[in-house]
Amino acid sequence: MSAQTQSARLTIADITKLYADGQRFPMLTAYDYATAKLVDEAGVPIILVGDSLATVFLGYDSEIRITVDQMLHHTAAVVRGTKRAVVVGDLPFLSYATPAEAVENAGRFLREAGAQAVKLEGGVRSARQIEAVVKAGIPIMGHIGWTPQSKHVLGGKVRVQGKSLERARALVADAFAVQEAGAFAVVLELVPDQLARALTERLSIPTIGIGAGPGCSAEVQVITDLLGWSDWHPRHAKPYANLRETILGAVREYAAEVEAGTFPGPEQTSSMDDATLEEVFGRSRLDRADSVDLDQLIPLDRDL
Questions:
Q1: Residue 226 and residue 213: Cα distance in Å, rounded?
Q2: CB burial string 76-114: b at 16+ within 10 A, e below
Q3: Contact 191, 145 (CB under 8 A)
Q4: Would you say 68 and 107 are in contact if contact means Cβ atoms under 8 Å apart?
Q5: Could you give all domains of the chain from N- to C-terminal order, each with its CATH number?
Q6: What is the per-residue pLDDT across 51-100, written as a single tens digit (0 to 9) for each?
Q7: H-type helices in the chain, by residue range?
Q8: Which residues are catalytic?
Q9: Per-residue pLDDT tens for 265-287?
Q10: N or C: which end of the chain has fewer CB within 10 A?
């Protein structure tokens, strides 16, 4: 494989091939240039600019608060930070209420932000929107199970979906509706392991699990959970680092050194020629007070 081929951006066809070859693959969220650059360098094939941006990065109390323009701003930053990964932008709340709105806003993610695909929530209820977006030539990823934008309809409290007979059957219908509408993959969030496995076995598109057990075709996690930014993480997440303590320790050490006067030190300091400094601060004849014509100075009490 040539270097050019290795560095070329992946396509939806490449993701489909991973699935066809039986290769599980990771997906991670990212919301900024610097993080996306590292995730891309690590070889993660899909980066999702999720609406979780609202809560984990911008400090809102709900994913519902994020706007299309905010999502586009951060998606564009992620695209600039990547060379290889497929970047998927998340359509926010009320940006795809109708098929026409879905096409218009999905198109903005590709046209303005440079994303390669979009994601939206909902199964049966969103099938017409998914179909319209696909017909417009835009790759789309579905999202069923626990869908944060619909949390008020789902009872408000984050919980596993599909444990009852009625809810399990509804999720099966949602999964097939997403597939039949033309989505290239579907996220299964907070779904029982057995149900997720059964759906994965029956669908012909990749299932991407989060809190859905190890039986899905792929896995997605929120980057801040993965890196341990908080002192809490959800049950379905595993912190692979503890950046909270690393960052706190670094900032506290920096602050202490500034207060003690030990930072910056010689290694962080530059110097200049002493003779130049002599000239700058009045040690030459022209800068001495006796070279100034006092009659030309403006009195301090003069009315200007």
A1: 16
A2: bbbbebbebbbbbbbbbbebbeebebbbebbebbbeebb
A3: yes
A4: no
A5: 3-248 (3.20.20.60)
A6: 999 999 999 999 999 999 999 999 999 999 999 999 999 999 999 999 99
A7: 3-7, 12-20, 33-41, 53-56, 68-80, 99-111, 127-135, 165-181, 193-202, 223-227, 243-260, 274-280
A8: 189
A9: 999 999 999 888 888 887 655 55
A10: C
Q: Is the pTM of this model over 0.85?
A: yes
Give strand pairing partners of 140.
118
| Burial tier of 243 (Cβ tally within 10 Å: 0-12, 13-18, 19+) | middle
Q: Hunting for tokens 């680092």 — which residue is that?
A: 241
- Dist CA 39 CA 244 (whole Å): 18
User: Could you give phi then psi for residue 299, rounded to 5 degrees?
Assistant: -60, 145
Query: What's the angle, vertex CA 297, arms to CA 292 and CA 301, rounded to 5?
Result: 145
Q: Report helix angle 127-135 to 99-111, nearest 10.
A: 50
Residue with tokens 């789902």: 154
Residue 29, strand partner residues:
48
Long-range residue pairs from 279-282, CB within 8 A, at least 24 positions apart, any chain: none
Task: Give the H or E element holding residue 66.
Answer: none
* 165: its two tokens: 């007979």
Position 289 scores a pLDDT of 56
d(CA 136, CA 24): 29
pLDDT in tens, 29-59: 999 999 999 999 999 999 999 999 999 999 9
Q: How far apart are CA 67 and CA 81, in angstroms?
A: 22
